[in-house]
């Protein structure tokens, strides 16, 4: 299967209202261009240096999503260059994104990463930390950051019930924030979850964006 045919097939299978972020990390600009020519505009990168090398090589209307763990010392380098930072995993990082965006005169769109997976290695707010952040309305101090929703990953397991439970948990936290805790939040409407191996379950549980890499581009190069 070609990259273009995979993009077209995935788009036909995704329900209306669910966006596709093509995870292009570790793949060359030529592969991204092939997906772009098939109509794909949203691409996910997880390393700042790799992202910065690719941006000038590719069309300017690409929506770049930063999906990896973002180190605080790299924040300034991507402000104003990405459409969305999906992986905000601490209040410290969020505060820095806000201050750097203010200095740059831009508004940065972000997702709050929630940690529900069993692996200790994954990043993110614990569910109770995230709901407490909104309960205390700490987001009101942000001036140049727009909170667009949540992002999360399921446990790395073949246990489909566990994966489904993790996705249900992420979507449940999102609903709790939007319905019960901060219903006045505007534009907080994105749930990014699901990857190549588990995206159909994520969609069933409420994903509005899926992040798919190997299914489109093959194994990383």
What does this structure look like?
It is a single chain. The chain has a single domain, classed as Alanine racemase (TIM Barrel). Helices cover 39% and strands 18% of the residues. It is built from nine helices and eight strands. It has helices spanning 3-13, 29-37, 48-54, 75-78, 91-104, 127-135, 160-181, 199-205, 214-217, and strands spanning 19-23, 42-45, 63-66, 84-88, 108-114, 145-152, 190-192, 209-212. It has an eight-stranded parallel β-sheet with strand order 7-6-5-4-3-2-1-8. The radius of gyration is 17 Å and the shape is globular. The protein starts with a helix and ends with a helix. The relative contact order is 0.15.
Which architecture does the CATH hierarchy give at level 2?
A: Alpha-Beta Barrel
Shape: globular
Task: Write the CATH fold name.
Answer: TIM Barrel
How is the biggest beta sheet arranged?
8 strands, parallel
Q: Which strands sit side by side, in order, in the main sheet?
A: 7-6-5-4-3-2-1-8
Compute the number of helices: 9
> How many whole angstroms does the radius of gyration measure?
17 Å
In helices, the fraction of residues equals 25-40%
> Termini distance?
17 Å
């Amino acid at each position: 299967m070609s990259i273009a045919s995979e993009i077209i097939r995935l788009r036909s299978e995704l329900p209306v209202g669910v966006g596709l972020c093509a995870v292009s990390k570790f793949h060359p600009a030529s592969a991204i261009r092939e997906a772009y020519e098939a109509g794909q505009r949203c691409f996910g990168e997880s390393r700042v240096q790799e992202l910065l090398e690719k941006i000038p090589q590719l069309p300017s209307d690409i929506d770049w999503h930063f999906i990896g763990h973002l180190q605080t010392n790299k924040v300034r380098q991507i402000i104003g260059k990405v459409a969305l930072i999906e992986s905000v995993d601490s209040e410290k990082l969020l505060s820095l994104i806000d201050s750097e965006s203010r200095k740059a005169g831009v508004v940065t769109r972000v997702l709050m990463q929630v940690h529900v997976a069993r692996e200790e290695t994954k990043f993110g707010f614990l569910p109770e930390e995230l709901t407490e952040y909104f309960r205390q309305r700490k987001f009101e101090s942000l001036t140049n950051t727009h909170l667009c929703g949540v992002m999360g990953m399921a446990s790395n397991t073949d246990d489909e019930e566990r994966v489904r439970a993790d996705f249900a948990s992420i979507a449940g936290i999102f609903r709790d924030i939007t319905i019960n805790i901060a219903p006045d939040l505007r534009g907080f409407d994105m749930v990014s979850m699901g990857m190549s191996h588990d995206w159909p379950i994520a969609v069933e549980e409420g994903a509005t964006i899926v992040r798919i890499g190997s299914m489109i581009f093959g194994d990383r190069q």
